[in-house]
Design a protein that fits this description.
Layout: E1 19-21, E2 31-35, H1 37-42, H2 47-50, H3 53-58, E3 71-73, E4 77-79, E5 82-84, E6 92-99, E7 105-111, H4 128-144, E8 150-160, E9 168-176, H5 182-190, H6 194-208, H7 218-240, E10 242-243, E11 265-266, H8 290-309, H9 313-342, H10 352-365, H11 370-380, H12 387-391, H13 398-411, H14 418-426, H15 436-447, H16 452-461
Antiparallel strand pairs: 1-3, 2-8, 4-5, 6-7, 7-9, 8-9, 10-11
Helix pairs in contact: 4-15, 4-16, 5-6, 5-8, 6-8, 7-8, 7-9, 8-9, 10-13, 11-14, 15-16
Bound molecules: adenosine monophosphate (AMP) and magnesium ion.
Length: 491
């Protein structure tokens, strides 16, 4: 009998030193909480087998499926600006890789499956709450069309974990285009291991940036590729009000996917200074600081690559700086283009960016809900009769009233009819995001043994751009006074 997962494990064929062989820890009572059948099919897995008892065993690490090569990956990273030369998978174990129906190779990783040689002071476990949070938010991001790791399964271990309140333990099975991070490059660079660095870069190029291999300067093209994907990614985060929360260099994927959902959250009222994470007192990773931090992280990657970029240091620095210089232009194009489309402006005209920024400033001044303001704008673009619903979102409605005439005058210079425009606007202005108060409520229900609310929210978030009138309440901001929210690191 062959196994339910057709593994082909390329990372485990890299030299020792990139990882250590590590097995998950036995747990008392494996139980499958949620299984992503649709994703399993896209990956070419045997979804029927995995949805049953065999899945509970595999997704808690009790059974190592045929073809798996369980390893913990080595990496380093800047955490809140401080360099830590060795981090590594402290509570994650890579089972292996599969090549999906789309031809893309992806990692299948257990998160929370017990200690590894990289655990340092940690216990290698994950609590149910953070596992369900990552499941919901990463699947919501995927449905929004934003590059992200995916959730294949959540499984309960039957143990409690040593956290506040002694919550139940769980394991998240995460799917990613790879788990190579900026911190993986830093791991080799910090050791002066240029051979390892080159090996890693060649692997990352082959897996994620195959076009770079044919470029005149492959490592320069690789760096430019990572810069471009990160610039695009952070722009997309801003356009949906997403705050990653812990943009350390070990949490930035080389593939350009959103990875490591810890204290992340979506903003309700628009305010660029928004921070949710309890461990980010200084606001280093505030909503509006994310582009600058992404660039800072890319500078750290560029530093690692210097020995590969040119023969002399001066020449390498020139290559690195040229690649980094492309960040601002790419980010601005993606962000301002996205904002323009959110306003219903699908052609680019002079003054569009100023119009969008004026709207954002007014939203900030009036504490308007970010997601709902743009969603209601889709209706207001068709008829001023929808202005009443817009004004409701602004504590000072004049903020909207003064802005709307200029916007309408600009809309009048757009080709196409109103109804088509509303549909196009709705495709870039989601109604449904994982609102913090909803996520917290489903986690509370799950901790009390009821997983039906989790499944319901997951289903609603799967079609974020649809109207779903039956679930209109899930599009609403938190009730007054319910908007103060703190997230805690996934540990
Ligand atoms: P994070 O902030 O979740 O990205 O984690 C930063 C580092 O801490 C990574 O090396 C993780 O593997 C490690 N880590 C986080 N939580 C735990 C835990 N409960 N046990 C062991 N290592 C952990
Ligand atoms: Mg991490």
């Amino acid at each position: 009998m062959t196994g339910p997962i057709p593994f082909d494990n390329s990372y485990a064929r890299l030299p020792e030193g990139f990882f250590t062989h590590t097995l998950p820890t036995p747990v008392p009572a494996p139980r499958l909480i949620s299984f992503n059948t649709k994703l399993a099919r896209q990956l070419g897995l045997d979804a029927e087998r995995l949805a049953g008892p065999e899945g509970a065993e595999i997704f808690t690490g009790q059974t190592i499926p045929e073809g798996a090569t369980p390893i913990a990956l080595a990496y380093a990273g800047h955490q809140f600006g401080n360099f830590v030369p060795q981090l590594g998978d402290g509570r994650a174990i890579l089972l292996g890789e599969v090549v999906g129906r789309d031809g893309i190779r992806r990692d299948i990783q257990l998160k929370g499956s017990g200690p590894t040689p990289f655990s340092r002071r940690g216990d290698g476990r994950a609590a149910l709450g953070p596992v369900l949070r990552e499941y919901l938010v990463s699947e919501a991001m995927a449905a929004l069309g934003i590059p992200t790791t995916r959730a294949l399964a959540a499984a309960a271990t039957g143990e409690v974990v040593a956290r506040e309140g002694m919550p139940p333990g769980a394991v998240l099975t995460r799917v990613a285009q790879s788990h190579i991070r900026i911190g993986t490059f830093q791991f080799f660079a910090a050791r002066g291991d240029t051979a390892g660095l080159r090996r890693l870069a060649d692997y990352a190029i082959a897996r994620h940036y195959p076009d770079a291999a044919a470029a005149a300067s492959p490592y320069r093209a690789f760096l430019e590729g990572v810069v471009a994907r990160q610039a695009e990614l952070v722009a997309q985060w801003l356009l949906v009000g997403f705050i990653h929360g812990v943009m350390n260099t070990d949490n930035m994927s080389i593939s350009g996917e959103t990875i490591d959902y810890g204290p992340c959250a979506f903003m309700d009222a628009y305010d660029p200074a928004t921070v949710f994470s309890s461990i980010d007192a200084a606001g280093r990773y505030a909503y509006g600081r994310q582009p600058g931090i992404a660039r800072w992280n890319l500078c750290r990657l560029a530093e690692c690559l210097l020995p590969l970029l040119a023969e002399t240091e001066d020449a390498a620095l020139a290559e690195a700086n040229a690649a980094l210089d492309s960040f601002a232009g790419l980010f601005n194009a993606a962000y301002h283009g996205g904002l323009r489309r959110k306003l219903g402006l699908f052609t680019a005209q002079e003054g569009d960016t100023a119009l969008a920024e004026d709207f954002l400033r007014r939203m900030a001044a009036a504490r308007a809900d970010f997601t709902l303001s743009f969603r209601r704008l889709c209706d207001a673009a068709v008829s001023p009769a929808a202005d009443a619903a817009m004004r409701e979102l602004f504590t000072v409605p004049a903020g909207y009233d003064e802005w709307a005439p200029g916007w309408r005058a600009r809309l009048a210079r757009e080709p196409g009819d109103d109804v088509a425009r509303r549909a196009a606007m709705q495709r870039v202005n989601p109604a449904f995001i994982p609102r913090n108060h909803r996520v917290e409520a489903v986690i509370a229900a799950a901790l009390a043994g009821d997983f039906s609310e989790f499944e319901k929210l997951l289903a609603i978030l799967a079609t974020p751009y649809g109207d779903q009138p039956a679930h209109a309440a899930y599009a609403a901001p938190p009730p007054p006074g319910g908007g103060i929210y703190r997230t805690f690191c996934g540990t």
